[in-house]
Predict the structure.
Amino acid sequence: MNSKQTLIVTTVTFLLAAAPSLLAADVAENWTKNCGSCHGADGTGKTKAGRMAGAKDLTDGAYQKQFTDEQMLQRLKDGVTDKGKEKMKPYKGVLSDDELKALVAKVRTFAK
Ligand code: HEC
């Protein structure tokens, strides 16, 4: 391999290694920006806004078993209302399908 080829291989290897962490940074950022205010950095929902809105503890595995990934995704798209009052706003149009799916996966990592 000449040095130019070595450079290309090194660059490609670096990009492949960096890709998942770039993706992960995006989800973490989306969580902090859009969800953390209510659900907390750790998903427990013990923030001021979370208590006011009535956010449930997402680290509770039994609670998380009550909905499938598809249901969770749908709820994120449509939002959650209770007796006509908005508890969580709809994220359709705010975040893309892929971003929402990544957040569904992130929410699952909170469950104990
Ligand atoms: C304004 C506060 C608030 C924000 C911001 C918020 N949520 Fe919620 N979330 C709630 C409340 C309140 C509920 C409903 C709890 C209940 O079932 O009564 C809820 C429910 C949920 C549920 C359970 C869904 C189900 O199927 O029952 C998930 C998962 C969730 N939120 C994830 C997220 C994600 C991901 C974001 C960011 C994109 C987010 N939330 C942003 C307040 C919020």
Q: What stands out?
A: The first helix runs from residue 3 to 39. Residues 34-35, 37-39, 49, 53-56, 67, 71-72, 75-76, 80, 87-88, 91, 103, 107 surround heme C (CB under 6 Å).
